[in-house]
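FW: tagging you since you asked about this chain on Friday. Here's the raw sequence from the shared folder, copied in full. Didn't touch anything.
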Amino acid sequence: MSITIRKGTAKDLAQVFELVKELAEYEKALHEVENSVERMTEDAFGEKPIFEFFVAEADGKIEGTAIFYYRYSTWKGKAIFLEDLVVRKEKRGAGIGKKLLDAIVQEAKDVDARQVMWQVLDWNEPAINFYKKLGANLDEEWINCKLELKQIQEYKMG
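HL: got it, structure written out here
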């Protein structure tokens, strides 16, 4: 199987969204997916793009994706946040995830990013072991905070 890693296009998003849902199912959170191919298309290729992605393609089929966006650290400078790194279940262990992460690291070098950051669920041992093997730091100090849509809508200003 010959894998090509390339930047994703709007035509890829239907297959990419299927991978996103596959990841959500693996993480026992498929019911939380509210996004759509249409929204992803607008968010990646519309007037104000907010994310980019790489795809791993073999024989016209997307076997994996790395979805990322730029963020900024006032302490470090420009950073890349890897939102999702997904490889089709039946293709895991074939080096596709490493090739996608290689593309993310190359992107970081190309844009002079000071960090590449991502999250992993604490029970996802295969992913944790993969990241450790690559030399990644697993931060146990910071706690993630978020406001969901309902909380944003009900937020009291002032």
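FW: The two ends are 57 Å apart (CA to CA).
HL: agreed, and DSSP finds five helices and five strands in the chain.
FW: great, closing this out.
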